[in-house]
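agent: user wants the full assembly modeled, not chains individually. Plan: 1) parse entity lines 2) check alphabet per entity 3) run joint structure prediction 4) return tokens. Steps 1-2 passed, two entities, 231 residues total. Proceeding.
--- entities ---
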Amino acid sequence: EIVLTQSPGTLSLSPGERATLSCRASQSIDRSYLGWYKQKPGQPPRLLLYAASSRATDIPDRISGSGSGTDFTLTISRLEPEDFAVYYCQHYGDSPWTFGQGTKVEIK
Amino acid sequence: VQLVQSGAEVKKPGASVKVSCKASGYTFTAYYIHWVRQAPGQGLEWMGRINPDSGDIDSAQNLQGRVILTTDTSANTAYMQLNSLTSDDTAVYYCASLTRSLYISGWDIWDHWGQGTQVTVSS
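--- prediction returned ---
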């Protein structure tokens, strides 16, 4: 099973600032099988990125992803009010699918 | 596309719960149905998936033996039954119709979630 570890646990930033979120896998994975979700309170998760860097439908280009092997990054170039949420990385493909424990991006 | 889940449940320790997930707006048998749960204030935990077409099932190792995934293709509905409940099973349970398939022509990405079902286990 691939274990995903996200850091930091919480990121306190102001609107307009840049957010950089990290996801580290317990072993090297094909970047094609790494995605990112965003979740707001009381809502189901929403897919942001798949294949490490490909944006899902209607995801703005201020959100980008990078990485390979064991280290992956989600970057939000300029935080908008709607970006304050919890973000999860996800490994998919073969079973089991796994999630990181999440990074909360909160308003400073 | 909609996935509509059944309502909140309150169960006693040791009991079982069965959550339903009715799909509409797409071909139900085309995509796996996944189940994901989220304990209060915690992250997302993948529970398992079922192929509505073939009936193939994968489930998380820590839940094997307690979770039963089924579908009724005539009703476009998936079910998740969890047995021998404990307080640690208190969570919001989500169904999701998900696929990530890479073809020569590119990716097929399908990602639709139900609204979630609160399951509370309490004596």
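agent: reporting back. The interface with chain A takes residues 34, 36, 43-46, 48-49, 58-61, 94, 96, 98, 100, 102, 107, 109, 111, 113-116 of chain B (CB under 8 Å). Residues 97 and 120 of chain B are 24 Å apart (CA to CA).
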